[in-house]
Amino acid sequence: MGKVLFSTLYESKSIIKSFMKVNPSKIVLIIDKEVKAKQQESLNFIKETFKDSSILIETIQLELFNNIEIIKTIKDLIKKHNDYEIFFDITSSLKPQTFAILTYLMIARPENLKDIFYYFYSDSINEFVKVPLFDVEKLSEKEYLVLKTLNTNNNLLQKDISEKIESTEGYTSKLIDRLILSQYIEKLEKGFRLTEKGNIYLISKE
After folding, report:
1. Which of 66, 90, 106, 111 is 20 to 30 Å from 133 at the Cα level?
2. Distance (Å, whole) CA 15 – CA 46
3. Would you put residue 109 in left (φ > 0), alpha (ψ -120 to 50) or beta?
């Protein structure tokens, strides 16, 4: 199984250091949808650095602030690399990107994910810091069904949800209360709908 390094890109220094740490056969550079001049400069430098090597260099564009789209992109990227050991360098990620990436990885827990880290450097310090992944609460089968039902049928009433998940209204009421408390769904004037957290959980688990 080969190694792939996923890395957000701004300055090239952290990419080179990460490459030396991981020694991958492939590097996937994550850049903004609107590429900044500094990113382009770093991208050109990395391509020039590895042009005579066997290292594969790919780029993928990522949204800056849309959590749902960021997670969909990262999910697809990981699925395309099922045959690799994955190492993730988030040194150059902006905070919204970092939040979305880590949230997805904590929920999905890809088996081939080996390490997440960032490179911290200053005048006196140069070291890699490993990022721990914490467990995200797991929903029950029925709670998950409620989310899936609302994903395809927004604004359903409680009795409609109960019928679709084949549970009593009393039990469905308890499920809904817990999901509202945990902020996976929200109550509307009539019915319920998924929150962004609920959408993220579904995308990550599918």
Report:
1. 66
2. 8
3. left
Distance CA 97, CA 93 (A): 6
Read off the pLDDT of residues 76-129 as tens digits, 9 standing for 90 and up.
999 999 999 999 999 988 888 889 999 999 999 899 999 999 888 776 778 889
Domain with CATH 1.10.10.10 in the chain: 141-205
Which residues, listed in sequence order, are joined to residue 88 by a DSSP beta bridge?
6, 116
What are the helix and strand counts (H, E) for the chain?
8, 8
Cβ neighbours around 61 below 10 Å, total: 11
The SS3 assignment for 86 reads strand
Q: Which residue spans of the chain are classified as CATH 3.40.50.11700? A: 2-130
Q: What is the rounded distance in angstroms from the CA atom of residue 171 to the CA atom of residue 142?
A: 10
Q: In one letter, which amino acid is 181? A: L
The span from the CA of 5 to the CA of 28, in Å, is 6
> How far is Cα 62 from Cα 8, in angstroms, rounded to an integer?
9
Query: 3-class DSSP state for residue 138?
Result: coil
3-class SS of residue 73: helix
pLDDT digits (tens, 9 = 90+) for 125-167: 788 899 988 878 889 999 999 999 999 887 889 999 999 999 9
> Which residue type is seen at 187?
K
Distance CA 106, CA 113 (A): 11
Q: What CATH code would you report for 2-130? A: 3.40.50.11700
- Helices 169-181, 158-165: axis angle to 10 degrees equals 110
